[in-house]
Amino acid sequence: MTLHAADAATLLVDTAEDGGSAVVAIVVGGTSNARDAARIAWIVGAGAETTVHGSLGAAPLDDAAIALMKEVLADPRGSDGLHELDIDDIVLELYLEVRRPVQELIIVGAGHVAQPLAHMGSLLGFRVYVLDDRPDFATRERFPDAEHVFQADFDDPFRDVELHERSHVLLVTRGHKYDYACLVRALRVDSPPAYIGMIGSRRRVRATYVQLLEEGFDRAQLDRIHAPVGLDVGAETPEEIAVSVAAELVKVRRGGTGASLKEVERVAERFFPDGDEER
Hints:
Layout: H1 5-17, E1 21-30, E2 39-44, E3 50-55, H2 59-74, E4 81-87, E5 90-99, E6 104-108, H3 114-123, E7 127-132, E8 148-151, E9 167-171, H4 176-187, E10 195-198, H5 202-214, H6 219-223, E11 225-226, H7 238-254, H8 261-265, H9 267-271
Parallel strand pairs: 6-7, 6-9, 7-8, 9-10, 10-11
Antiparallel strand pairs: 1-2, 1-5, 2-3, 4-5
Helix pairs in contact: 3-7
């Protein structure tokens, strides 16, 4: 079965939009007599059902390619790139194109911090939604990178935005009571968001946790909250805070440690233990 380029592109886009994952493998070189630019797609739907489209021309090649695609998709850092398969003396060079479910960033609050957050979220590939109850703040002019900007009621903040397992919620409203009301709503949805972050000082976050426990939430639910939000980079300005939060979102998505790469790699310590330099 032939999988044409246009069909492969459509499968990638539609699957990601529908909440599934897709990988397309394209033959770009090797010693095989497989058809030029043969393609095979491995599709994982939102309900975890799997389908295969196309073929590389032989069942052993298809099986090996599918195993490779599954491996890449299972790795949170797996992305587009070249791979080589060696099956029964047939060498194939494959280019894998990966699409994961479209992730959503819901920013509750449209103040000064929200503006760079929306821009950073868009740069990271999130579909960005901004919510605020102030009509002068919740405007397209202030948030040109957002998919939608809603004037919301903080008593029912997610009326126009459905929360689910691909949602990343950032609570940056103008006051603690609004953050708290929206936080309770986010914790009670049937499909827990992938990420819930709330801005605030240590004292404010502690008060939030005490109030949540008094209202019957358990410790496991508290542990789902990223508060204070972001990584510790000494951020002060709205733009710096946005970078801090964006770094944490990448960490959650990719599974990093958040440590300085200098400390992780320790190049000087590993390769120049006595302070000697290569000449």
